[in-house]
Amino acid sequence: MSREEIINDVKRMNEEIINLGDELYWLDWITLGVPDEATEEDFEWYADDLEEYELLKKLFKAIMEEANEND
């Protein structure tokens, strides 16, 4: 993935978590992943650290799986 694709992917994941509308999932996300009211620099940070980007994707997947189980 290109740097821009990673940035866009992080933004997409962030929006999906926010759109879940569940404060507990959101708190996990902002505590362990993307900070609340993330800036462009926050999103770019993941594009500059692929290991952190991979960890973020795992966190996103875990949150989404739990949210889908609880629907």
Helix/strand layout:
Elements (H helix, E strand, L loop, with lengths): L2 H18 L2 H10 L7 H9 L1 H20 L2
Outline the structure in words.
The chain has 71 residues and is an all-alpha fold. It has one domain (3-69). The chain has four helices and no strands. It has helices spanning 3-20, 23-32, 40-48, 50-69. It is globular, with a radius of gyration of 12 Å. The termini are far apart.
Label this structure with key terms.
mainly alpha, 71 residues, 0% strand
Main sheet record: none
What is the residue-mean pLDDT, rounded to a whole number? 96
Oligomer: single chain
User: Judging from the principal axes of the Cα atoms, what is the shape?
Assistant: globular
Reading the helices and strands in chain order gives HHHH
Structural class: mainly alpha
Beta-strand portion reads under 5%
As for the number of domains, it is 1
Query: How far is the first residue's CA from the last residue's CA?
Result: 32 Å
In short:
This protein is mainly alpha-helical. The protein contains 4 helices and no strands. Helix 1 (3-20) crosses helix 3, helix 1 runs parallel beside helix 4 (50-69) and helix 2 (23-32) runs antiparallel to helix 4 (50-69).
